[in-house]
Amino acid sequence: MSTLVNLLNDARKGSYEFMPLTEEEVFARIQEGKSRILMAEDSGEIVGSVTYNDGYWGEEIRWLTVCDRADRELVENTLVTEAEKLVHGQSVFTSLDSESPKINEWVEKGYRPEGGLYQMIAKLKRIRPVPTVPEGIVLRSMKPYEAQKVVETTNEVFG
Asked: Could you tell me if 83 and 63 are in contact, meaning their C-beta atoms sit under 8 angstroms apart?
């Protein structure tokens, strides 16, 4: 855990309003169970990590961190590729500070700025598996006469 926290804090140094993470904070995020955390190791030593999260704003690569080493870029690209395999939809995003030096590295990975330079999205071109539908459930397109009911229900839910 201490190695992961050190990697995360090293990667985030210099970011806007940087506040170092503690082991307790990282452990709490892990315990939420909403993220998939992938680790890269070399000879039993943790050298990097990436986290995939399917949250409120969509599918996200929440953190990517690799220690300073000769093959850092290779390890980062491998971790991102593995995280992208977890994506269910057609795109995934990551968030960066607007003046982050990492922006160009993410562009080289296939991401592009969207909505400013804080969010970078990659369109995934590979074929996605068809999701399984529970027995008794039928998926269909909305019928024209149902549109008003969807609008009313949405307005009721969101006030």
From this structure: no
Residue 93 lies in a domain: yes
Q: Is residue 40 part of a domain?
A: yes
* 147 found inside a domain: no
Question: pLDDT tens for residues 76-121?
Answer: 999 999 999 999 988 898 888 777 778 888 888 888 877 654 556 7
Neighbouring residues of 137: CB distance < 8 A, sequence distance ≥ 6: none
27: amino acid identity, one letter: F
Angle at 114 between CA 88 and CA 34, to 5 degrees: 35
Does a structural domain hold residue 143? no
Please say whether the beta carbons of 47 and 75 come within 8 A: yes
31, HSE (Cβ side, Cα atoms, 13 Å)? 7
pTM for this entry: 0.63
Domain that holds residue 97: 2-129
8 membership: H or E segment, kind and range: helix 2-12
HSE of 85 in the Cβ direction (CA atoms, 13 Å)? 9
